[in-house]
Design a protein that fits this description.
This protein has twelve helices and nine strands. It is about 50% helix and about 15% strand. It is globular and about 80 Å long. The protein has three domains: about 110 residues, Butyryl-Coa Dehydrogenase, subunit A, domain 1, CATH 1.10.540; about 110 residues, Butyryl-CoA Dehydrogenase, subunit A, domain 2 (Beta Barrel); about 150 residues, Butyryl-CoA Dehydrogenase, subunit A, domain 3. The two termini are about 30 Å apart. The strands form three sheets. The protein has a four-stranded antiparallel sheet with strand order 2-3-7-6, covered by helices on one side. By secondary structure, it is of the alpha+beta class.
Amino acid sequence: MSPLAEHEQQMVDLTARFVDERVRPRVAEFEAEDRYPEEFVEEMKILGCFGLLVPEEHGGADVSTACFARVTEELARGWMSLAGAIGGHAVIAHLIRTFGTEAQRSAYLPRMADGSLRATMALTEPGGGSDLQSMRTHADPDGDGYLVTGSKTWISNARHAGLVGLLCRTDRDATPPHTGMGVLLVEPADGLTVGPKIPKLGYRGIEACELVFDRMPVPASALLGGEPGRGWAQMMRGLEVGRIQVAARAVGVAQAALAAATRYAQERESFGKPIWQHQSVGNLLADMATRVCAARLLTADAAQRFDSGARADMEAGMAKLFASEAAVQVALDAMRVHGGYGFSKEFEVERYYRDAPLMVLGEGTNEIQRSVIAAQWIARHRT
């Protein structure tokens, strides 16, 4: 794992202090009430968390993806929901900086950098899940723009986003379907309805909602890059960023669970000695620590490959797959170390146990990751 640049490490350290001093002492009250963490988000704006992947010329921090992953890990270590507040936003920022027109970059990136404009991405549909090529949401040409019809679900930050990166079909006759897709940069207006919050097991505080588009008019200038038929390839590159970010979230949750178990195993005694000295508990800690370190290294490897400009869908998929499964196992093992107390809301480990499964399911299920990894592995190792 290559060291970060000095200014990037300072950003990670600053985020870690924010988490330890501001977030961890108060996270329980927000989480219990499922309350949007507006106070924390405002502080994250000041820290520069929303402009991590925005170029300096547009007011952003313009850090490496490796630094972005480490900042994400620190946020998730405090409360995974805070990392979710910047997830889709960062993907859309990357898409605009990479594929957007000059007008799109100038219009959106400065406000995204300071957090005054927050973005989310809309891919998943109620009946489609991970099968994005079967999506039905479409944008039909209408004069100088489009009329968008359809629905998307599980959209994080839906009520707080002023910009939606919408993947939809702009040519319903295209074969195969992905050749007729575009990413529209949609600002909420008449024709878009945001549904109620979906009740969730974990990942509380940050809302997930359904978006319903009813012949919503969108100008032609909203098409990312201005060229039709490019949306699928654009979003697949963006999802490499998204999956690295989800992997980093998983590392953060796993690290928090490991730290809690490590503290408890030294404080709690049974049969006259700290419980970590009992082989069954010591073995749990050894496996947990190994999983966290391996997940962090896989995530760093994927981020560094992405930063090199190379295709990183396999590496991002590997990181997301391993880190998310590790987070679930480490959270469960942390509960085992705590015994009955791990099942109590008096201890943080029950929250980690509820938050961890999201990373298995989000940004493409782990079953999808395995398909991506297998296909790319064979493509790179043809005999």
